[in-house]
Amino acid sequence: MNEGEQQKRKAPEPSGVDLARQALAAAREQARARGNAVGGKKRQPQPGLRSGARADGRDPMPLMAALDRLRTERGWEMPIAVAGVMERWADIVGPEIAAHCEPERYEDRELLVRCDSSAWAAQLKLLAPQLVARLNAELGQGTVRLIKVQGPGGRPKRYGPLRAPGSSGPGDTWG
After folding, report:
1. Would you tell me which CATH number, out of the four given (3.30.390, 3.40.1350, 3.30.300, 3.40.50), belongs to the domain 65-150?
2. Among 30, 49, 82, 170, which residue has the fewest nearby CB atoms (within 10 Å)?
3. Alpha-carbon gap, residue 147 to 124, rounded angstroms
């Protein structure tokens, strides 16, 4: 046997601790080669460089900003705006009209308004173009295209195939 083979046989195999030390030494050497310090001195930040942390969508933000962002991402602007108008109906149309007419539904840029008498329904039909202009000023141009006016009670609800003849709804002149 030559000397190299004898030394290999005499040297014990490295244990787990020795392997860990070798791996740490190799990692430190690689870090030094890249310019990063591991364990020893802290590296001084270079001017003009940042840590890499930048503002993104996960950062904390005020509640109203988060709600605005959610509303925009989900496409809820229109339903929320219309709901706001339904809540502020009396402010937009005035207390006199609001006492007798109330919005029921908003679909396909049409607002359905129900009045408590046929006289108020006729009056609201005359005022509809002006109300459309006011509502569009509040919501944004083109939001409300048409106001549909319904009188008291509207159409009677039909429950099942059988109906009693002559019962057409409230005793008003509408419809």
Report:
1. 3.30.300
2. 49
3. 9
Q: Which residues of 21-56 are buried (b: 16+ CB within 10 A; e: fewer)?
A: eeeeeeeeeeeeeeeeeeeeeeeeeeeeeeeeeeee
Task: Write down the pTM of the prediction.
Answer: 0.47
Q: What would the pLDDT profile of 77-101 be if each residue is shown by its tens digit? A: 666 667 767 788 888 888 999 999 9
Strand partners, 105: 112
* HSE-CB of 5 using CA atoms within 13 angstroms: 2
Question: One-letter amino acid identity for 69?
Answer: R
Measured CA to CA, the distance from residue 76 to residue 94 in angstroms comes to 27
